[in-house]
Amino acid sequence: MSLKCISISISLILAFAVAVVRSQTTDKPVEQVRKNIQVLKGLPDPQLFLVMNFVGDSLGVHCDYCHVKGEKNPQTGEDTWLWEKDDKKQKLVGREMMRMVLELNQNKFKREAVVTCYTCHRGSTRPERMAPLPPRDFVKEALQIQKTVLPAAQEVVAKYLSAVGAKQNVAPSAIVMKGSVESRSGSGALEVIFKQPNKALIKQTTAQGLFTRGTNGATAWAQTAKGVTEITGEGLKRSVASIAQFNLIKTPDSVADATVTGIARVDDRDTYVLTLENSATESTQLYFDVESGLLLRRVNVTNTMLGSLNVQWDFSDYRDVNGLKFPFVIRTADVASFDTTIRSFKEIKIDSTIDDRIFDLPQEPR
Fold it and tell me: How far, in Å, CA of 323 to CA of 328, rounded?
């Protein structure tokens, strides 16, 4: 199911916008906010449309495979949706499939999201029933894996810090980044001011006008020509967490409990995969280039009752800025295809004159 008409990305440029919507519904269980919720009771409302996107991705379908469209909005020309209607057989079957997944995980595996829609469907409405041919030589692959000696997490992080020219305890002044942003929801000029550890001001100019987002770590907000909206609850948490992509040091505060779990390909590069379990429901995966030590990808995973919601950041085009290396291209993606966003920067500089008050919630004139 697509989020196009209701939800927006949890990646940074759209994170503040989606938080505006989420802050209005808080983090109530979905059945207290939506109509005709029969299976996913207890799911936090802000997760609903992302979970539905995950289901749609797993089956390779759009919202209208299960849900009923209403008449187009005469003002915007966009589709309207009658989410609560049960007119389509596919929706009824989908409910039964969800019940099956929940029962398997709760009663057989005693944990969430071991089995998901994607486990069987793999992007098709018909589950896979046959193994692909010719078969892989798993014995040979296992022997190759056994010969691979993986470094400790601390070694990988130390190489990364050396590669970007930073130390864990060194925090540069504010970073000012100017460039452009491209996504299905709109493209335009972009300016980001980031200050460690959790302050950011983002200005995006599109055909619809100027859209500004900000956070000082304690509060978050969004501003348009219509005014300022404060972001709270789950939206605030995600807004603060998402700005880490602009930090020079893109690793968690502590890697003491992190482990290097293997080697994976990112584009055409071998990377060490460093995994950190943040909580019972959240984890982080960091992909460091085996040769250069640079961080090429970060994936945040949130486990829900029906599946894992992953947000991915890809970092490329590293360049020198005052002796430090920054990625000049940042691509973000989540389970909604139209949320994929590419930020390309033409200029990045370090500015010690930035006043911290620019990150605070604007005070509108009475």
Answer: 15
